[in-house]
Amino acid sequence: MDIKCAYRFRFYPTPEQASTLARTFGCARFAYNHMLRLRTDAWMQRQEHVGYHATSAALTALKKQPEYVWLNEVSSVPVQQALRHLQTAFGNFFAKRARYPQSRRKDGKQSAEYTTSAFKWNGSALKLAKMDAPLDIRWSRPIPKAAKITTVTVSKDTAGRYFVSLLCDDAVAAKPEASGKVGIDLGLTHFAILSTGEKVAAPNTFRKNQAKLAKLQRRLAKKTKGSNRRRKAKFKVAR
């Protein structure tokens, strides 16, 4: 049975890789916001629907203009994928599954998506396009040898941490049906109580960190907006 699996790991880029990723994030964000504005203006001014193929052609023309030549400095795949994500966002909006697409912010979470033509995977190391060395990934769990990586998404959160998500196609053998049955009762004092009498304790992760979070938020509220101290305090809250 073929299934899709996703694996997420933290990684630590070199200064050169961080610089490349920063430019890639910026180009992908610019393409998304620019084409969002183009599609919005086309409808508001001319009641014209602009789809993915039209925005792709517009991006190609944009890259040929001298003032936008910097778009060619990064891999074209993440920039192109940003247009696909915009198309998906509009599809969700028209299907009434989501609100109207919003511009991506520079101070928010940053991400870039690479398809198979923009990365190399040898079974133990991952190298992205426009980079000379593989990413320094903390492999917290192994990737199945039979798994085929189809998409790599690199992200940076507001606390400055880098993560890589791998979407894989994997073949999994069907498990035999279990002969026994067990009832599960979710509770308040315990996370779950099984019909066998076994009790599963609640992790209470939030309660354990609630006091620390409140303290950091109070410190953040006292910092001057726009200052480096407020930026550092914001990172601590995000962590």
UniProtKB/TrEMBL annotation:
NCBIfam families: guided_TnpB. It holds the Pfam family HTH_OrfB_IS605. This is Probable transposase. InterPro entries: Transposase, Transposase_put_HTH. Residues 1-47 form the Transposase putative helix-turn-helix domain. Residues 173-239 form the Probable transposase IS891/IS1136/IS1341 domain. It comes from the Bacteria. Residues 218-239 are annotated as: Disordered. It comes from Lampropedia hyalina DSM 16112.
